[in-house]
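[audit] Reproducing an earlier prediction to check determinism. Same input, same settings, fresh worker. If the tokens differ from the archived copy the diff job will pick it up downstream; this log only records the rerun itself.
[audit] input (268 residues):
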Amino acid sequence: MRLLKELVFVGLGLYDERGISLRGLEEAKTAEEVFAELYTNLMPNFSIKNFEDITGKHIRVLSRCNLEEENGAPVLNAAENGKTVFLVPGDPFIATTHIALRLEAQKRGIKTRIIHGSSIISAIMGLSGLQNYKFGKTVTIPFPENSSETPYKVIGQNKSLGLHTLCLLDIKADEGRFLRINEALSVLIDVERKNKSGIVKGESLVVGVARVGSDAPVLKADSIRQIMDYDFGEPPQSLIFPGELHFTEVEALKAFAGAPATLRSSVK
């Protein structure tokens, strides 16, 4: 009997083990081996034990070293001997670097498939009420020790085109470190002090988001000056720098994000 050489990338969703799709769950239940990585994004309430109870499968959690320094050898070797599922937070390939794993699987003659899950990118856009086609390039704000001017420049470029900027915040899951909104803003403010381009000012409107996908996400729109002192609670957290706002976006930010009543007059 010919072995089925197959690697299925399955999105876990955003918050806990219930975020996976029914199709993704079925793929995990019928796999010979199941692997997971949990370092590219934080899923606050995800439980390996609960997931194993649901699927009846042992889940092998891989480190960044397993996937990057070992070139995904544990997953690829398993896939050469039977159907293998690789679980990834969010939607596979949206905000991760696993394309190299899929390419290597193809080189080895391993069939690959993708079972999509909820993405932080689409979820934040939907939660905020901002129109998805008005978002420009997405950027990640790094920890202060890895400070870069790139996020600042991307925000400026998007703003010049009237576009919104989604800023994902850096994580180091293996160290239990997750950049928070006020820390990210401090990084950008430091760059503003050097560049003086007026891109990140105290009165600039920003939207802070925390724990998207949970039963109680936090969404708050206000000036940077006010957001710096706002308590968003636990991570994961993200930021949006709005560009030009349509009147329906203004109303959405007022209704769902507690934006100031004067918002309409403060944007183009």
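[audit] rerun output stored. Observation attached for the diff report: The chain is about 35% helix and 20% strand.
[audit] end
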